[in-house]
Specification:
The protein is mainly β and 291 residues long. It folds into two domains: 56 residues, no CATH class; 220 residues, Jelly Rolls (Sandwich). It is 7% helix and 36% strand. It has two helices and 22 strands.
Length: 291
């Protein structure tokens, strides 16, 4: 059962959102200790298959300013790596909302390899991402990742000719979105669900590809790449956080992940009616109401 505890304290929202994601919150009523909890994070879900968090710089194994390894915080050992120094993205160069982000330079062919995540009935991804420019200069700097079957095609974020996102995340098909929102050079949360019944995507909670009837879920058989598409298209910009879940994602898990990422990276205000519009999801089903 979810418990809502209200704190009548001016400035609680700033305190709750700016503290470390691992910091405990002590709950007391009338001077009595009721419990200790902490803000919810993706690893609190057993479905978390991959969690890359650039804000946690202890998870980054540097090679100078290059990233040799970006450690997976899910506990599954799906670390993102690049052994070739020439292709290593950079850390400590750019930030989002005052937090570290990983910088990918398409001209230098920066990308990371991720072990294949294996078979899955459904897969969902949440990515905090920002391009250096609204549109790519050409095809070479239009990539993003490869997490699909060979038939899923190249991922373009976006394709410079029509400003649409082309993606086949965890699928055997490539979809073309109908994106009409602000510049790709602004930080965004890109979210995709791939299930046996449909494939859908949204940017900052705005649906850009409505649920499509019919879909074949596939993560392929080879290594996944972050910062590089299936072809020779590379990403030009920053990636701050990547969370991947296996299995059907409940409405509450989706809402918790949205609130966690959007507030942490200062992407936007949660829309009216969002389950966590006025509260912070906490571990163990507790939700702190912001006043």
């Amino acid at each position: 059962m979810k418990t809502h505890i209200s704190f009548f304290l001016i400035g609680l929202q700033a305190v709750a959102l700016q503290t470390s994601m691992a910091q405990n919150v002590t709950i007391a009523i009338d001077g009595k200790l009721v419990g200790i909890t902490r803000p919810w994070t993706p690893v609190d879900s057993e479905q978390c298959e991959l969690w890359l968090d650039a804000a946690d710089e202890s998870t980054i194994v540097p090679n100078g300013s290059g990233v040799e390894m970006w450690q997976d915080k899910s506990g599954n050992g799906n670390h993102a790596t690049q052994s070739n120094p020439a292709n290593q993205p950079l850390t400590g160069v750019h930030s989002m909302a005052g937090r570290n982000a990983i910088d990918f330079d398409a001209a230098e062919n920066h990308y990371l390899n991720i072990p294949n995540l294996g078979a899955a009935t459904s897969v969902s991804v949440f990515l905090v991402v920002k391009r250096n420019s609204d549109l790519p200069d050409g095809d070479h700097d239009s990539g993003l990742w490869h997490f699909g079957d060979t038939g899923s095609g190249e991922t373009r974020y976006p394709y410079r000719m029509d400003r649409q996102i082309y993606d086949g995340f965890a699928s055997t098909e490539q979809r073309v979105t109908a994106y009409s929102h602000p510049s790709f050079a602004w930080p965004k949360m890109y979210h995709v669900d791939s299930t046996p019944d449909y494939w859908t995507s949204d940017v900052n909670l705005n649906v850009v590809f409505p649920p499509s009837a019919g879909n074949t879920v596939s993560l392929g058989s080879g290594m996944h790449t972050l910062g590089k598409s299936q072809g020779e298209q590379y990403f030009e910009g920053q990636i701050a956080e990547c969370v991947i879940y296996k299995g059907d994602v409940s409405a509450d898990l989706q809402a918790r992940t949205e609130a966690y990422l959007i507030r942490k990276w200062g992407l936007m205000f949660l829309p009216v009616g969002h389950p966590y519009e006025f509260s912070v999801p906490m571990r163990d089903g507790v939700s702190i109401v912001m006043l």
